[in-house]
Amino acid sequence: MAHEGEAQFGDYFALLKPRVMTLVVFTAFVGLLVAPVPVHPFIGFCAILFIAVGGGASGALNMWWDADIDAVMRRTSRRPIPSGRVTGSEALAIGLTLSGFSVVMLGLATNWAAAALLAFTIFFYAVVYSMWLKRSTPQNIVIGGAAGAFPPMIGWVAATGSISVESVLMFALIFLWTPPHFWALALFMRSDYDDAGVPMLTVTHGRPSTRRHIFVYTVILAVFAVLLALSPISGPVYLITAIALNAWFVFGAWRILRRDETDAEGDNYLVEKRFFRFSLLYLFLHFGALLVDAALLRLGVFA
Q1: Do residues 172 and 181 touch, judged by C-beta distance below 8 A?
Q2: What sections of the protein cross the membrane (predicted)?
Q3: How far is it, in rounded angstroms, from Cα 197 to Cα 223?
Q4: Counting Cβ atoms within 10 Å, is residue 116 exposed (0-12), middle (13-18) or buried (19+)?
Q5: How far is Cα 177 from Cα 182, in angstroms, rounded to an integer?
Q6: Among residues 217, 219, 215, 205, which one has the least CA distance to residue 258?
Q7: Are 142 and 179 in contact (CB under 8 A)?
């Protein structure tokens, strides 16, 4: 492994997977704000900060463990460890240190139930998903998606001290979104997973089966997304947003289902890439709508 000069601050920051952290922070922030218990702004800021640090710790531990397959995959070969800018032992030390720091500080800032849930989330992503599921089963994304679905629940527990139906529905939204999101990516990035020996569904069951799975999961996701509109934390903004987004998402999944490989290769997976790009906005728009409804409720608009 060739070294390409001294590591910069940006290389260490990249270990924390900042793009993934953006989603973690935003969904945790929404979970905290839509909770029925008011939180002091400073305590809320600290809670989101430590949840973000915990998410970054998970990313560092994942990069430490996955350095060998990251080096093989084109999409990840420029990451800090495979490119030689950061050593595996440095990434491990950063991940473990930030894990302990984030859990303890979240417990001190809010409550130990939230801290315990954050600790479980880090363990689930680093050990259950990265070390076990990712390399052993095509259900890696299905089960492993739970790791990314916990942040709004952690935010909710930080505010209320307990888990509720509303927090479970927010968890379900992200959990069910994860498989179609990643399987769409896998459809046009399959060679990466082939080369790395990662048993993604496209590798183990083929693209036609993956297309069917995407459609089924998207339909189930749409049901849960609209179901969330019936909960106390949502209002008309979320309802309209959920109906519109999920109608479009299901239509996109249907288009993917109807295509064969000749069509897909002919336009360089244009439909799949559009579905994937839309999936990136999907969660932000749903949780953003929850945030708008919460603000309108507190302003007395729905009173």
Answers
A1: no
A2: 20-36, 42-65, 86-106, 112-129, 141-163, 169-188, 214-231, 237-257, 278-301
A3: 34
A4: middle
A5: 9
A6: 215
A7: yes
Q: Which residue has the tokens 């390409």?
A: 4
Rounded to an integer, what distance in angstroms lies between the CA atom of residue 86 and that of residue 91? 7
Q: Could you tell me which of 206, 189, 154, 135 has the C-alpha nearest to residue 44?
A: 154
- Stretch (H or E) spanning 174: helix 165-188
As a whole number of Å, the CA-based R_g of the chain is: 20
Q: DSSP state, 66?
A: T
Task: For tokens 């996955």, name the residue.
Answer: 66
- Burial class of residue 16 (count of CB atoms within 10 Å of its CB; 0-12, 13-18, 19+): buried
Nearest to 279 by CA among 181, 213, 163, 206: 181
Answer whether residue 303 shows pLDDT above 60. no
Write 77-85 long-range contacts (CB < 8 A, 24+): 79/14, 80/7, 80/11, 80/12, 80/14, 80/15, 81/15, 82/1, 83/4, 84/1, 84/2, 84/3, 84/4, 85/3, 85/4, 85/5, 85/6, 85/7, 85/8, 85/11
Model confidence at 17: pLDDT above 50: yes
- Percent of residues, the chain, with pLDDT higher than 90: 66
Q: What is the DSSP letter of 125?
A: I
> What residues contact 60, with CB distance under 8 A and at least 6 apart?
15, 16, 91, 92, 94, 95, 98
What's residue 78's pLDDT?
Answer: 85
The CA–CA distances, whole Å, from 84 to 88, 90, 255 equal 9, 12, 41
